[in-house]
Amino acid sequence: MSNEENVPTQFGIFYPTGYIVVAFPEKDDACKVQEDLMTGGYEEAECKLYEADKIASIAKSHLEDAGPLAKLGASDDYEKKHLKAAKDGCTFLVIHAPNDVDADRVMRVVRRVSFELAHRYRHLAIQDLK
Fold first, then answer.
1. Whole-angstrom distance, CA of residue 84 vs CA of residue 22
2. Those residues with Cβ within 8 angstroms of residue 86's Cβ, 6 or more apart along the chain or in another chain
3. pLDDT-derived band of residue 3, with 50, 70 and 90 as boundaries?
4. Partners of 118 in the β-ladder
5. How far is residue 95's CA from residue 102's CA, in Å, rounded to a whole number?
6. What one-character DSSP code corresponds to residue 20?
7. Which of 75, 89, 91, 119 qualifies as a cystine partner to 27, CB 3.0-4.6 A?
8. Where are the beta strands (DSSP E) in 4-121?
9. pLDDT for 6-55, tens place per residue?
10. DSSP 45
11. pTM of the predicted model as reported, rounded to 2 decimal places
12. Residue 31 belongs to what H/E stretch?
């Protein structure tokens, strides 16, 4: 998810509709979840791992470049949460989960380890997952 990549945004803020973004304090836990999801049938493109510095760079750029409409919605606040978690050293997984069944399956795997945050990006809302 470099600045050159086509990162899904809404009004200039990261908004990957149909995905769950999870931050893990321990990189080993993120790798374990990614491995388990791939064993269960996910492709690497559907379950991407990102280092803290990459997420911090992207989040900071989006927050600086966001238009006024982005600041009216919740996506700006979630981007700030991602930036904080990245600054704290979290490793991220961005996991494709376009429907409730997939989201439930993903979270059953994620919940096996400790995680800092999990945000599900729906068409009109961002959902905090526990």
1. 13
2. 23, 52, 53, 55, 56, 59, 92
3. very low
4. 22
5. 10
6. E
7. 91
8. 9-10, 13-14, 19-24, 47-50, 91-96, 117-121
9. 545 444 456 789 999 999 999 999 999 999 999 999 999 999 999 999 99
10. G
11. 0.86
12. helix 27-39
State pLDDT tens for residues 59-113. 888 677 665 555 556 677 888 999 999 999 999 999 999 999 999 999 999 999 9
Q: What share of the chain is helix, strand, coil (3-state, %, to 5)?
A: 45, 20, 35
Place of tokens 């990957």: 16
Q: How far apart are CA 108 and CA 34, in angstroms?
A: 13
Identify the pLDDT of residue 10: 45
Dist. CA 125–CA 108, nearest whole Å: 21
- Characterise 35 by phi-psi region: left (phi > 0), alpha (psi -120 to 50), beta (else): alpha
Nearest Cα to Cα of residue 90 among 56, 62, 47: 56
In degrees rounded to 5, what are phi and psi of residue 6? -80, 90
Instruction: Locate 53 and state its tokens.
Output: 């510095």
Beta carbons within 10 angstroms of residue 8's beta carbon: 15
Question: Which tokens hold the place of 100?
Answer: 């409730």
Residue 117 is encoded by which pair of tokens? 């945050």
Q: How many residues does the chain have?
A: 130
